[in-house]
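Re: the request from the purification team.
They wanted to know what the chain is likely to look like in 3D before they choose a buffer screen. I agreed to run a prediction and write the result into the notebook, where they can find it.
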Amino acid sequence: MATSSNITFSIDGSLKPRLIAKAGDFDDDFVAITAVSWDKSRFAKNDLEDVCHRYEKEDDVWCRSFLSFVILLQPSKMKCTTSSKRVFAIDNTKAKIPAGPLVVERSTGHIFMVAKLEADTHCAFVSSIVPSNKHKKGFVEYMRSEEVVVPIPSKLYFPKLESKPLNGIRVAVKDSIALKGLPTSFGSKAWLETYPAEIATAPCIQKLMDAGAVIVGKVKSTEFAEGLHPSDWIDTTCPFNPRGDGQQSASSSSAGSASAVAAYDWLDVSVGTDTGGSIRHPAAVSGLYGQRPTHGRVDLAGVLGATDLFNTVGIFARDVDTFSKVGGFLVDSTQPERALVSQRKFNLLYPTRAPQSENPDPHYHGQHRWFPHPEVDQSTWSEAEKRIEQTVLNMEKLLDCKRIPFNINELWRATPVIGQPKSLDEAVGHVYSAITTSSALHTGIDEFVATYKQNKGGEEPPMAAIVRARLEYGRKVTPEAIASALEATQAFREWTENTLFGSYDREATTLLIFPQTCGRPDYRDEIPSYTELFNNTFSIYAFGYLVGCPDYTLPVAEVPFESRITGQTEYLPASISLIGRPGTDLELFDVVEYLRENGALSDLTAGSRMFA
């Protein structure tokens, strides 16, 4: 074997006896080799070096330890000459062997593909997985523990194919989404004990797999995908956010999805769910690109959540190309042609705080949600606001438009909706808690509780105290309150389309931006007070779950802070959200790509810092 940190997978391929003899010079039972697709008549020493450089650049599994000997995979009837006894050619039409690192068993000539084992140092994974030999398109667990190791296959096994646009992209999946052959824990050991393994993979994940994506593991979710602080986790350790001093909250409920992509450069994408912000906020605090798609664009079969009225599936990624490619494919695999960004007109909506002087910076639980009012002296702005302002200026320049400042509370009062309160908080602040808690009970939680009690002789399933309290709240929500919440949802949806988006140039693409995170520390060991079960004020996230708008998290800067953990200056992400009308998902990806191409956004690195 090339290294003890690798494992092998059998393939339908083997070497002929005359070639096995070339492995006879080695002492090990298994010999590490390299396969190369080669369509030239000669293979020289400099060719080998070129191949090595290319493999080292393209792959993180292959290394020079696999150069015991080299197999050239050649077109039929071509003969290649080489001066090395350790290099030989075979007909690639007869041998089912992929290019890349391989292992050959000397006694039989059987060939195995290789996967490198990577440690889950940030406790992001529930389990690592490998394809099942027993069940077609199914999986088996390679390891399930508090700190797993994850097998990652060589990217060289997955050449670029037009029929598989996501070929070789490594993906981790939130443990509230079904994978065939595996149990789904929904963030709860009690749930895991109650239900059997899944008999089918969720269509949204199968869609990615059919396009060539490689699923490497399941990542942690909070209990029943609830919004929880790290201190509320009862069954397992909350994932560690790698940014800054490594002791910041990764937010919820897709904390595992965010932590994994932010921590591990060997993972390309993770899939999460977002009901009230569970992709957008974890992406922001973990310094990642995060996608909440237009509601209804992604099939939710096989996806657990509080309510399909608000829930959806999206992705996390570090680089814009991968974010756009995978996220765009998830919502529309046809990828229709679209006008170039440089040829479009844009409205850039810029929600601001009120201009009051005593408290010019109101925010909920320490998180900004609005831009500073234009009348506020910029010398009072935070460092994050100054960094975000530079991004907004770049957007204005690149999109050839000027921001349109407005205060959403004032706009709501000035354009009243018949039958709705003039306070936006009173109008829609109650909607999320009423719909999600009552729906969670009726769409799965109460059935689970009853089944668990039946199986355990009346014993109640273990739950975090805050989760149990929210479910009790949901049991008291009346049908009249639900009807009122649904009516408010429809009213706000129509107001957003007709008044907020509809008040500006209708021929232009309307974009709404707002500050997502501003680099404020949120230590994972702090205990929340929970003086209230929910934030029953208007949330800027409402455009995603009430209106169904696509909402993308864009990291734009790092902000210094003095860590009480390390006693040193560390850096945390500052991010913005980019929102469009429902159905404009691909147009938003075009904008994100355009901003990256022109320097307004950057690709990100894994680890404590976002930028290399």
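For the purification team: The first strand starts at residue 6 and ends at 14.
Please add any questions underneath this entry.
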